[in-house]
Amino acid sequence: MKLSKLVYISFLFLTAGTLTVNAQDKKTTEKKTDKKTEQKPEEKKDDKAVTEEIEVVRPYKPILAEAVKLRRSPDLNDVKSYKARFNYALTDRKLMLNSDIDKLYAQDVAAEKQAELINNYVKGGLGSANTIFGEAYINMDRDEALQVGGFFRHFSQSGKLEGQKLSQQQASVFGRSIGDQAVLSGRINYERKGFNFYGFDENNPLRNLDPAKQAFNFIEAEGEVVNKYTEDPDALSYAAKINGYIWGDQLSAKENSVVINGYLNKRISSFNLGLAASTEFGNTKDQLTNVKNNLLRLNPYIRLEANGIKINAGINYVQEFGTVSAGHIFPAVTADFTLIPDYLQIFGELKGDVNRTSMKELTDENPFLNSNIAIRNSIEKLSFSAGIKGTGGPGFGYKVRVYRKEITDMPLFVNNFNDPTRFDVIYDFGNAKVLGLEGELSVQVSDQLKWTGKLNLEDYKPASETYSWFKPQLRINSNLLYSVTDKIGFNAAVSIQDASNAKLYTSAPASPYVIPNSAIETTTNVKGYVDLGIGATYKINNRFSAFAKANNLLNTKYSRYLYYEVIGVNVFGGISYSF
After folding, report:
1. What is the dihedral of CA 515, 517, 520, 526, to 10 degrees?
2. Would you call 72 exposed, middle or buried from its count of C-beta atoms within 10 A (0-12, 13-18, 19+)?
3. Residues 391, 407: contact at Cβ < 8 Å?
């Protein structure tokens, strides 16, 4: 503030001085002297003196800047206010009083574009070992309450041994309808397997120079009805299913079966009272055999479900009728206790049953069977199992189970005496005991990486046989899936099996077979194996993708059954189209 005041005063004096100079005109005149007057020499200097005459042009009028006129502080006594004047124009208008609720009109929403469904595909590929592969899956509708579809698959290969060929075809048509009260489903399957009895003995290479051909045909139909789940505590639930099939080989063996299952369950608060029943009609024929092994099962039970506890207690009554007639009563008890929800559960089971033996199941396990196979049901007298299961977090699941079984007339495979490339079925007469450990593990690190593994460890104590033939003690299976990107993925699988034992006859055994005769038997070892396979997929676009697969990468010459060496390393690949 002081600096501003000093500037203003300086500016004032400077302006006043300038105006003063500009307001005066200076005129210089010389003083006149009389020539006649004598002057003394010292007076000559004064004669030359100059005088100034000032002529006033205008009077001085100082001017102050506007900023100088400001007061130091405002005048607080100045209370005069300013009032603006407004002009109004009023319009006469009628007041409308409408207390009714206006009607709301629904606005049309733009139709949402349905997502394009790509749930159908066809595949085709070729490769080494004369591999031909084809597969197709078709689903006819997007309606979740009505599904109709079909499936087809062909796979064929051939190896280096004489007659080492395999050809398999599968076809299936299925449907499901979800109604207001029940769910209906059904399917029709057809399967054909064609192969040769190519069994090769290195010690006797000239024994099987012209392998015989064999083929299995299987037709199956199934229908099921199940009531929809309801939360009504007094609800009555039910289900019924019927399954029937016809099976036959290229020679003279034939088999048919009809199985009818059903159950009723009445829920009363935390308890369930129910009855499960089933009937199996089976008939197996060959040139020299004709066996009817039918079963009737009745399983009344009571079930408790409350506070993480599930207990099912009942009995299993089984009646055999047909060629053999016998009745059996077994316990049927299961328990499940949840210690830590979703993380840890303890379970146990005590049961018994009669297992119906069929040519379909036997040939699924070992297709190189002889003709006129003996058919006899096996009885699982008492089976106990217990274990734990649960999850260890997202993407991690586990299950560990120990079990003990006591089986009467357990079926076993042995090489035929006259033709060792074919197998007969004998039964371990008496009570064979099996002690086992089963473990399963699943780890999903992310959407790109998943690993699963399964372990089976079993200890067999046969009833009358020396060993449980072709029953390995250790089996391990593992699968790994890894997606590098959205387009590239890899998978790997490994199968490990321990060694097993096989029985060979030095002379023809008794027919029909009753008990083993160690004097005419020898035991040989079937080596274990490790089978490693890998695969890769590449997604070209939303429609097309390419795949490749390699089996038995270690090129291991192993045999699951004696004399039947598997095909060595083989690679095939192809194209897949989705629509």
Report:
1. 70
2. exposed
3. no
**Cβ neighbours of residue 200 closer than 8 Å, sequence gap 6 or more:** 161, 162, 208, 563, 565
Cα 262 vs. chain centroid, distance in angstroms? Answer: 31
Q: Is the peptide bond before 205 cis (omega within 30 degrees of 0)?
A: no
* Residue in this structure with the two tokens 């795949």, named with its chain if needed: 547
Which amino acid makes up residue 51?
T
The residues, any chain, with a CB within 8 Å of residue 94's CB and separated by 6 or more, are none
Rounded Cα–Cα distance for residues 185 and 37 (Å): 161
Q: Is 485 helix (H, G, I), strand (E, B) or coil?
A: coil
Q: Using a cut of 0.85, tell me whether the model's pTM lies above it.
A: no
Choice between 394 and 245, residue whose per-residue pLDDT is larger: 245
Q: What is the CA radius of gyration of the chain?
A: 52
Q: What is the pLDDT of residue 26?
A: 47
E-assigned strands of 250-289?
254-268, 271-285
Amino acid 106 reads A
Nearest alpha carbon to residue 381 among 404, 413, 347 = 404
Q: End-to-end CA distance of the chain: give it in Å, rounded.
A: 88
3-state secondary structure of 209: coil
Between CA 132 and CA 127 the distance in angstroms is: 7
HSE-CB for 569 with a 13 A CA cutoff: 7
CA distance 337 to 346: 5
CA gap 524, 499 in Å, rounded? 11
pLDDT of residue 28: 46
Pairwise CA distance, residues 564 & 547, whole Å: 29
Going from the C-alpha of 66 to that of each of 14, 63, 69, 427, 549, the distances in angstroms are: 17, 9, 5, 129, 99
CA dihedral 551, 552, 553, 556 (to 10 degrees): -170
- Please report which helix (H) or strand (E) contains residue 363, including its range: helix 359-365
